[in-house]
Amino acid sequence: MTKRTALFLLLFISIFSNWANGQSKFGYDVEIGGYFATNEKLPFWMQSNQFGVPPDARNTILLTQRFYSKTDSVKSFFDFDYGLEVNVLSGNQTAVRLTEAYIRPKIGAVHLMVGRKKQTHGIGDSTLSSGSMTWSGNAQPIPEVQIGISDYQKLLFNWLSFKGHISHGWFQEQTFVKDYYLHQKSLYFRLGKANAKLKLHSGVLHSAQWGGTPKYEVGENDGRVTNGKFASDWFTFKQVFFPRAAIVDTTLGYANFEVENRFGAHLGQVDFAAELNTNSLTILGYRQIPIETGRTIGSLSNLDDGVYGLSFTGKKEESFFQKLVLEYLFTMNQHSYQGLLARLLNIPPKDYMNDAFLFNHQQYFDGWSYNNRTIGSPFLIPQSEIRIERKVNNDFVFVNNNRIRAFYLGFNGKINDVSITLRTSFSKNFGAITLPTPPAAQNSYFFQASVPLKRFGGSFKTSIALDQGDLIYDNYGINVAFCKSW
After folding, report:
1. Of the four, 140, 252, 277, 485, which is 20 to 30 A from 442 by CA?
2. What is the pTM of this model?
């Protein structure tokens, strides 16, 4: 986001906050603290799923300021939300980051969001998950224009409701490609009334990278580009919106790569979930199945890939137990073999041995990332951050290690007024189907405690993290911070 755009958003927020003073109030948060580690990078769970806020280097001081709307609890037909977050880093890393800057007017059930906003997509636990399969909140928010329905709305019957969105975003300049776009849309359904004890959810999330100009050298007859660029006209957008194979007669003049595969780099997920409400708990079980470029779920060949999750949320505010999340990530298939369900149903192996090479692409060498951070599950760690002996001799591969079995446990608890969070993960890593490496075990741990300081009207937060294994370098880290809200 440019400085001009940020100034425009600040002005717009100021004007609208005055206009909407009777409907909403604003909040202001400040946090200042330091990050320290034995390695050059921070430990895995100290930096993952935090929208790119933590520093990229150890021994760094971080000052965070947030300015945001506080909408009244009584809903009105028209609402207006806004947010601004600025991170100032000093020490081994010096930078100023605009993590959030958005306006979000809403008319009835429909919202329009413009700017950067912290969001996760997919059905799962939104606060303690290891990360949604393809959009986890691990990277800095991408600037976008989004229109959608964020809360479930009735569809024909009281027991059937839906929600969804459509977005156009800008990846801006990355390491290998510049000025390319994000296309994203989702549609989700819920069976069961809002207050029902049992509710079923399902839906699909589709994302695509398209357009832009490669910064790497391309030959005169390189089949990946059209006149030195990736196609970005209206015909291309239609092919991106409906990611079907293009009819050859309509693609004269376009790059051979796009005609043979798809226009753009596509990634998505299909979600299923069941939600059970009891007197003391909310229990959510969910599955997230990844979909890659040119593959359809119709073949059922990779149904075993994805995230398997189970979340337990307590309903007693002062109880020690607040939340427990258990997850299993499996990405060993990627269309390299017929999954169990496909074999049982005797479905023809449509995508068999047409492996996906998850989170990588042969045009967009930056892969499924933004500002060098994985957009999807953080377990798919960029090649630049793994041990040198685990890397491959290919600078154009973003994630070499994408065949993974990972177990994850997250816990939130409360002891008197002290809030605690625990994250721990155990993974086996096998490289990639086309670039295999010997199996590597990796363990990562994270513990955080937040203690209220009533005398100062804020809280003291401390975090300790540890990495140990054969995929990333062993590391110990600590973060201490003071937080205050108005």
Report:
1. 140
2. 0.89
